[in-house]
Q: What sequence folds into this?
């Protein structure tokens, strides 16, 4: 009896270990919703007068929905950010809107990209590489002029209980550059792999909220969205916003005793809509607002209550 129990327990344990190994080693595709990459660019031309800060800009790619091109499903994403003035240390926000789309080829462990104003896809990432393989020319900066960039080490990176395959790049800058499946490059989603030393690109943050994957280069504070809106300290739990993403509109459910003011802004800080209501639940129509990242600000006549992001697709 005891031997049978131990045998069954051992079989069950081996099954769990096999399942864990399978789940942890399975290929991880790029986000299909709620994807977010934040990148920082620095160059010696942006050094301040004290030669301490060389940051030129910070920018972000945000998945805003999907689209179908040539009968293939692609994830659309926008591009926005801010540029730094090295003289007076001020920042200028910019928003270029829709920037392109990518497609997961899960069977072949590849990601394809179609730039804005194009219908032709190019190979963005190939995660079938092994040690000594050369990176595809499509995402290497001028490979005919500079050193060939190769893979010299392959290992795994644990990100939120998920093991992601990681590829170390040889001859690529400062020596800490990687490709990571499901994320892209540690230089940024679309940054060409470069051998330059006088400039640098850094992926500060990656989020795949749908699957609970979060990657921070430093700490979670670098993941804050770049906007042209004033800083607001939110008070959580007093209002609810749903659904998110939204298509034609969304609900605001309020637990306030006072009339609330609901404002809808785009990523550039332009106010697109304002609604004042005292109802417990209010439907906000956004059907005529362009798709993309929106910010919803809720306040009373005297104070802010909450600021939240919402994706319209």
A:
């Amino acid at each position: 009896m005891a031997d049978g129990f131990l045998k069954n327990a051992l079989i069950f344990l081996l099954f769990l270990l096999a399942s864990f190994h399978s789940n942890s080693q399975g290929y991880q595709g790029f986000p299909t919703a709620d994807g977010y990459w934040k990148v920082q660019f620095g160059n010696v031309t942006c050094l301040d007068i004290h030669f301490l800060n060389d940051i030129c800009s910070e920018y972000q790619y945000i998945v805003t929905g999907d689209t179908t091109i040539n009968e293939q499903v692609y994830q659309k994403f926008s591009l926005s950010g801010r540029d730094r003035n090295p003289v007076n240390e001020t920042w200028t926000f910019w928003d270029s809107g829709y920037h392109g789309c990518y497609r997961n080829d899960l069977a072949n462990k590849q990601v394809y990209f179609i730039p804005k104003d194009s219908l032709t896809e190019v190979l963005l990432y190939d995660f079938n590489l092994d040690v000594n393989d050369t990176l595809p020319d499509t995402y290497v900066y001028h490979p005919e002029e500079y050193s060939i960039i190769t893979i010299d080490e392959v290992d795994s990176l644990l990100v939120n209980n998920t093991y992601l395959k990681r590829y170390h790049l040889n001859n690529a800058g400062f020596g800490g550059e990687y490709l990571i499946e499901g994320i892209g490059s540690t230089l940024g989603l679309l940054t060409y792999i470069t051998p330059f030393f006088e400039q640098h690109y850094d992926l500060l943050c990656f989020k795949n909220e749908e699957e609970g994957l979060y990657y921070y280069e430093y700490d979670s504070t670098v993941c804050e969205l770049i906007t042209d809106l004033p800083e607001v300290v939110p008070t959580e739990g007093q209002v609810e916003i749903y659904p998110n993403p939204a298509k034609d509109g969304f609900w605001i459910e309020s637990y306030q005793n006072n009339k609330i003011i609901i404002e809808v802004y785009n990523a550039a800080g332009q106010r697109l809509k304002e609604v004042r209501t005292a109802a417990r639940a209010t439907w906000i129509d956004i059907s005529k607002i362009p798709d993309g990242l929106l910010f919803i600000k809720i306040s009373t006549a005297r104070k802010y209550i909450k600021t939240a992001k919402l994706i319209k697709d």
Remarks:
- The chain has a mean pLDDT of 83.
- The longest strand covers residues 55-69.
- Helices lie at 2-25.
- Residues 2-25 form the longest helix (24 residues).
